[in-house]
Design goal:
This protein has 378 residues and is an alpha+beta fold. 38% of the residues lie in helices and 28% in strands. 35% of the residues are buried.
């Protein structure tokens, strides 16, 4: 099934108000010690907490925390970042767009300047799973998985796993032994290692000193009970498996060979924005700034139209825009583009600070790739 058809079937979910999925928020003081925040995240099985920062709502995530060198001296207010707010009348489609762009799992719902609740990726996944069951729509897991995920060898250290997660901005690392899936390590596992010895169960790691815990092999920390599904199983099966296990991921495999991974983000991204064109085009993670959003849509539309003239058999075009990091007013983006045609697919990925330049470079690269493919078929 194409993304275009999937989009149409899920369209009813986009207009649901977030108040229907609202939960009590997890708020912490900006002056609370990070070790206390880690304990709170661990006890509530949460990924992020909200902080009041200069009259705005900020968020602190596990991915932020594992990048901190010293949790005893770093203040949460220096790590937390301001994110867009929802109100009770905001719709799920808007929440999905913001989650995808900012790589968030939870967003605050604000009324009269006060946070009154939160909406989470987990609740959106539950809603999608329910809709799939009621509509009897079958979406194959391989249609939406992230193929060839980054993995780590079981003999590498926990410190190496942490470095990969920080550098690649990911939260799940399948653990392999000679290419065979043997476990998984998550950013939550890394965060727990950072706790002082008096706050962590010694049985869980077996080493008292936090620094020494980072030197052990990932096989000593990884969870061997991996949530998995076969490539031909349905997305509903994947969602149900994740929900029932309280998991944020599912490894897609054939036997012990990893084919891909599906996370909350992959599922929520199905609610991304479709652009009305002759060619089904989808763009996920549009920037929050209207000018940048329109620039991205315009440039992606123009290059797709151009490529269609060269290659009439193009059937679908997808673009994922990810916010990799923020430094003051500067934002570092990653764009990931896939052009699907009857003669094969073309992919393009690039990272940089200037969104307009990234799309211009993408345009040049895709023109060369498609032209080359076209010549080969002549």
């Amino acid at each position: 099934m194409t993304i275009s058809k999937i989009y149409g079937y899920l369209n009813v979910i986009r207009s649901i108000p977030v108040r229907d999925l609202m939960e009590p928020p997890i708020m912490i003081s900006k002056d609370v010690a990070l070790s206390k925040i880690i304990s709170t995240l661990n006890e509530t099985n949460s990924y992020d907490v909200f902080i009041e920062l200069s009259g705005k709502i900020g968020v602190l995530t596990i991915r932020d925390i594992i990048g901190i060198k010293d949790i005893t001296t770093t203040r949460p207010s220096l790590v937390g970042k301001i994110i867009p707010e929802l109100n009770r009348d905001s719709v799920i489609g808007e929440a999905a767009r913001i989650m995808s762009h900012y790589r968030m799992r939870t967003l605050p719902v604000v009324h009269n300047g006060k946070i009154e609740g939160q909406v989470s990726a987990k609740r959106i996944v539950e809603l999608i799973s329910k809709h799939l069951a009621e509509s009897k729509l079958r979406i194959v897991a391989s249609n939406i998985m992230t193929s060839d995920p980054i993995v780590i060898d079981c003999h590498k250290t926990v410190s190496a796993a942490r470095s990969i997660m920080k550098r690649r901005r990911i939260d799940h690392l399948p653990v392999v032994d000679n290419g065979r899936l043997v476990g998984i390590i998550t950013s939550s596992d890394i965060m727990k290692v950072m706790l002082p010895s008096e706050r962590i169960s010694k049985k869980s790691v077996g080493i008292d000193n936090a620094q020494d815990r980072f030197s052990i092999e990932v096989s000593g920390l990884a969870n061997a009970d991996v949530i998995t599904a076969n490539v031909d199983e349905s997305l509903q099966v994947v969602c149900d498996r994740m929900i029932n296990a309280g998991s944020t991921y599912c490894i897609i495999r054939v036997w012990d060979e990893i084919q891909g991974i599906i996370t909350y983000r992959d599922i929520v991204a199905l609610l991304g924005e479709k652009m009305e064109e002759d060619i089904p085009m989808f763009i996920v993670g549009l920037p929050d700034e209207p000018f940048d959003a329109e620039l991205a849509k315009s440039k992606f539309t123009n290059i797709t139209r151009f490529l269609r003239k060269i290659h009439p058999d193009i059937e679908e075009a997808r673009c994922h825009i990810k916010l990799r990091s923020v430094q003051g007013a500067r934002k570092r983006y990653e764009i990931d583009v896939h052009i699907l045609s009857t003669h094969g697919n073309i992919s393009y990925t690039n990272i940089g600070w200037d969104l307009a330049k990234l799309f211009d470079e993408m345009t040049d690269a895709l023109k060369k790739k498609v032209s080359h493919k076209h010549k080969k078929t002549l």
